[in-house]
Amino acid sequence: MRVLGIETSCDETGVAVYDTALAGSAGLRAHAVYSQIALHAEYGGVVPELASRDHVRKLLPLVRQTLAEAGLSTADLDGVAYTAGPGLVGALLVGAGTARALAWALEVPAVAVHHMEGHLLAPLMEDDPPEPPFVALLVSGGHTQLVAVDAIGRYRLLGETLDDAAGEAFDKTAKLMGLPYPGGPQLAALAEQGTPGALRFARPMTDRPGLDFSFSGLKTQVLLAWQQSDQAPQTRADIARGFEDAVVDTLAIKCGRALDAAGCDTLVVAGGVGANKRLRAQLQAMCAQRGGRACFPRPALCTDNGAMIAFAGALRLEAGQREDAQVKVTPRWDMAALPAV
Ligand code: KG4
Ligand code: ZN
Question: What's this model's pTM, rounded to 2 decimal places?
Answer without folding.
Answer: 0.96
